[in-house]
Each structure stands twice: as structure tokens, then as C-alpha cells.
């Protein structure tokens, strides 16, 4: 199995695949990004050892299944690839065009996109019947859901193969339509966007909004803390897809969200979003 992209999502997907006994190649054009992704896996597995969920030997066995690559043309034979590149259609289209050239004819090309059209990605290849969406939740090692998104030409056998893979990875697959935002982000991201509007309009502080949603709505994590975990740039990208794809002004991204992204306040990964993290002053 191949995972393209060694960021937060790609590393998580590679980890659960290796834990399930699969040999994984994690590919990224940036060698340092690939190494950083591997360090993330090492860190996650180390926590498992500390908590007694696996032994040091188990950890080393899992890590031995993960290989790194910086070239899609040096991947060798594989049956499925999961693309987990940045949430931009131009980037994903470029990846899929290249994958179509280098992947074995029988290989399934899956995308971890959280909002973009699977049909459009499939149209960039010569095998649209073997292109599908496989949207994992963040953090991948913890969250059980995988949205399975069929494009217009996705074959039944492709869908079945992805269902079986999701189950092998310990996930629960859920079939959703190829529409902007699919199901979870059609509901979740507008809720986050509305929470940001509440901050912008002075309804409550970020801490106050997260408090009322955790204690009042029994959410395990407040919407702004969740936005920071997802990445504010990703939240903005999904809102833009919803706004453009559905044409309804209710999906207009909050100006404060756009301002935070422009400032580089992207959430946990940058040390600051609606909350502060790590050593950020």
C-alpha cells in the first residue's frame, strides 16, 4: 500500500495500515516532510508503549513495515494508493495524473480529500472506475469513521475493496455521495464557521464558546479547539468548496477565519489558532 503525503493525515493513515500488518510506502516530494511524518508515527507508537497498549518489540515491528519515498516513480508494485496531499484541487489533480502513469493497471487510486470532487479527480485519469474517496477522520489512529465516496464512474468492486480495507484498518466505512463537503464536513465545518462568527461578533470568547459546547451540548471537544486540531487553513478550504459548490451564502467563510489563516495562525500545527499551544508566546 502507498500513502502519498506525510503530513498529519498521511502519517496517521500509514500508521494504522502498518499496525494492521500492511507494508506501507509513505511518499512525499519533500524528504524532510517524509522524515517528519515518520517521526510522528514513532512518537505515536511510543505513547502506546508508555500506556502499555503495545510492547517495544511491537513498536519496532510496526515501524519496520513503513518505508519512505520522495518519488512516485520509484514505488514499485502496489494494489492501492491513498492520496493525502494538501486540500487543493490543483495539487491533487497533479498527483492523480502522475499516479495514473506509474500505478499498476489494477491499482485503486483513493483520495483522502475532505471536500473535493472525486468525479473530477477520476476524470484526470484513464481509470475512473478505480478512483474513489476514502476520507479518514483526524486523528486517524483514534477516529473510527471513514467516509467512502463514490465518483460518477466508480465501480462496485472498487467500493467493495475499499470497504474491506477500511475494516482491516479497524475503521467503520460509511457510504456518502460525491457532493461538496460530503456528509461530515457539510455539517461540521459550517458549525465551526458559525462558532468563529460568534467570536467575531463578540458573542463569547473562544474559551467561552468551547465551554458551552462541551458542557451544554456534550461535545467531547469544543468547535474552536476542534478547528485548531483540523487546521484553520483546512477549515477555510472546505468552507470555500462548500460556498462555491453549493452557491448558498450561508456557507460564506467567516472573515475572521480568513484573517487568522492569512496571519499564519493555523491552529495546533503552527502553535496558535483560536487557542495557544506549546511554547508559542
Give the tags.
281 residues, alpha/beta, Rossmann fold, 11 helices, 13% strand
Kindly report the CATH topology of the largest domain.
Rossmann fold
Give me the side-by-side strand order of the main sheet: 3-2-1-4-5-6-7-8
Going by helix content, strand content and strand pairing, the class is alpha/beta
The geometry reads as globular
CATH architecture designation of the largest domain: 3-Layer(aba) Sandwich
Helix content: 40-55%
The Cα radius of gyration reads 19 Å
Assess the beta-strand content as a share of residues.
Answer: 5-15%
How many independent structural domains? 2
Put simply, the count of helices is 11
Provide the residue-averaged pLDDT: 95
Which parts are unreliable, with pLDDT below 50 for 5 consecutive residues or more? Answer: none
Order of helices and strands: EHEHHEEHEHEEHEHHHHH
Annotated CATH homologous superfamily of the largest domain? NAD(P)-binding Rossmann-like Domain
Show the helix and strand layout.
Blueprint: E1 2-4, H1 8-19, E2 24-27, H2 31-50, H3 56-64, E3 66-69, E4 80-83, H4 89-102, E5 108-111, H5 118-123, E6 131-136, E7 145-150, H6 156-168, E8 172-176, H7 184-200, H8 206-216, H9 223-230, H10 232-246, H11 255-263
Parallel strand pairs: 1-2, 1-4, 2-3, 4-5, 5-6, 7-8
Antiparallel strand pairs: 6-7
